[in-house]
Design goal:
three-stranded parallel β-sheet, ten-stranded parallel β-sheet, 18 helices, 502 residues, globular
Length: 502
């Protein structure tokens, strides 16, 4: 299997055939520029650079040939720092200079530096590209904000220059449709800045907000969100079940098709019922939390407890056993979800939800035996309530095997009152005729976690230290061997689709 480097070499060879091929290949060659892994040692020695050789060569090419720069829509920058290490300023400057040469740039992928409310050339360069369609803000700690927080309470921790600069970065992003914001190490982004920055993006449709403090994002901020199609709220202490219920009634929420609520600790099931009731366009719903949302004491319970006529995908993951799974199962059984086609429930403790889905012969994957969770279970260090897909698939398969080893009913064939044959029909888990698929695969291939998260997006471990990467030796059968084609070992890069967050 080849990699980006080998793929680009093949395209380059096609471009050399004649002018017709060159015109056909050039947009494909430069529309998505993916630079993956380490530089070739011969290049670093030749150009007397430690890193960034290919980036600087790309910059030189795009500066000299402006027509090629017009084709660039997406750039993948190599990740050369290990996880947790800060990105050097000179690296940001080189990437910024490449961005400035691409007037039609839409995406910068695989490279998400922390923004600490201090000026850097890369952030400024991206803010000048009017065609940017997606952006990821990783808001980091700022020393001056931290110092002010010790002397005063919010709002007002961000000074005028910091707030104004952050807002100004959004002024030209008229085409930006997807925005992800995550606070890292107590990064601050105050309420007014939140609301004003979001309302400066007229094309915004998909929004993810994660890990902000109660003083930055709360129920009041939630009510001020612009109209969206996709929304993910994760690890937000200021968002309550009351705020979610009120938000579902706002005009901005009417068009939401995908909603993900992750670790918000929703107390009452009535909040989820209100959300599903009022969001009439909702097609995908994700709920992940540890505690089980319950029916409030004194509330009358009618079936279905929760319902949605148009929902076709649901991720339901309640770690601590409670009545939530039972209430969902009874709601499905009562016809509350007629359009539901896919259900992913990693914490289906007693199999109530699996029983309502289409029967499956096998849930476990061949790759499960190579996962970290498998090794941990072999050593006895995991429990059956651990939130991993390996554990979920193991328990689901165990229920299937137990049912398969049980005789469901017998078929007796008699002739003239004499029993001729008896057939034992084995049991199964599921409902014959159900339209719901029981789905236990991950958003990120090879991961034990069902839901994609920011570490999956910003981690560069596979790129920094590739295992079983490509060296171009799949073409070693050529009679000249390595002399014909080979390169430094690089990982086979697969871009993370940000739509998976919703």
């Amino acid at each position: 299997m080849s990699c980006e480097t080998c793929h680009l070499r093949d395209l380059y060879a096609l471009a050399l055939v004649d002018r017709a091929w060159d015109r056909a290949v050039r947009p494909r060659l430069y529309s998505k520029v993916h630079i993956v892994g380490n530089d070739w040692p011969i290049h670093t020695k030749k150009f007397k650079m430690k890193s960034g050789v290919r980036l600087k060569l790309l910059r030189r090419t795009l500066r000299e040939r402006r027509t090629l720069a017009q084709h660039v829509r997406e750039i993948k920058v190599p990740r050369l720092q290990a996880d947790g290490e800060p990105i050097e300023a000179k690296t940001l400057d080189v990437v910024a200079s490449v961005v400035m040469t691409c007037p039609n740039l839409e995406k910068l992928i695989g490279f998400y530096p922390v923004y600490g409310h201090e000026f850097d050339r890369l952030t400024y360069a991206l803010s000048t590209r009017p065609n940017v369609k997606e952006h990821v803000w990783i808001i980091g700690e700022n020393p001056s904000i931290t110092e002010r927080s010790l002397k005063q309470l919010p709002p007002g921790l961000m000074d005028f220059e910091q707030a104004g600069s952050f807002l100004h970065y959004h002024d030209r992003w008229r085409s930006l449709s997807m925005l992800l914001l995550c606070s890292q190490n107590h990064g601050v982004l105050e309420r007014d800045v939140f609301v004003q920055s979001l309302h400066r993006l007229p094309s915004l449709q998909h929004l993810c907000i994660s890990n902000f403090d109660v003083d930055d994002f709360d129920d009041v901020t939630l009510q001020s969100l612009p109209p969206l199609q996709s929304l993910r709220l994760q690890d937000l202490e200021g968002v309550t079940f009351w705020g979610l219920s009120e938000f579902s009634r706002t005009r901005s929420a009417k068009g939401i098709r995908q909603l993900a609520l992750v670790n918000l600790d929703i107390t009452y099931l009535s909040a989820i019922s209100n959300i599903l009731l009022h969001l009439t366009s909702l097609q995908r719903f994700t709920l992940v939390q540890e505690s089980s949302p319950e029916v409030a004491a004194g509330d009358l319970v009618f079936q279905p407890v929760i319902a949605s006529q148009q929902l076709h995908y649901m991720h339901w993951d309640i770690l601590v056993p409670g009545s939530a799974n039972k209430n969902l199962a009874s709601s499905i059984r009562a016809g509350g979800f007629p359009s539901l086609r896919t259900l992913r429930a990693p914490s289906d403790h007693d199999g109530q939800l699996q029983m309502l889905c289409r029967p499956r012969a096998q849930v476990v994957l061949p790759s499960d035996k190579y996962s970290k969770a498998y090794r941990a279970s072999s050593e006895g260090s995991t429990s059956d309530t651990a939130r991993t897909l390996f554990t979920a698939r193991k328990l689901a398969q165990q229920r299937i095997e137990d049912a398969r080893n049980t005789v469901k009913f017998k078929v007796v064939i008699e002739e003239d009152g004499v029993v001729q044959e008896v057939f034992d029909i084995q049991g199964f888990i599921g409902t014959i005729g159900s339209r719901i698929s029981y789905y236990l695969d991950s958003d990120v291939p090879g991961s034990d976690n069902a839901l994609i998260d920011f570490p999956d997006l910003i981690s560069g471990a596979k790129e920094v230290t590739p295992r079983d990467g490509c060296t171009g030796m799949w073409n070693a059968s050529h009679h000249t061997g390595k002399k014909w084609w080979n390169h430094t070992e690089r990982c086979r890069y697969h871009p993370v689709d940000l739509h998976r967050f919703f």
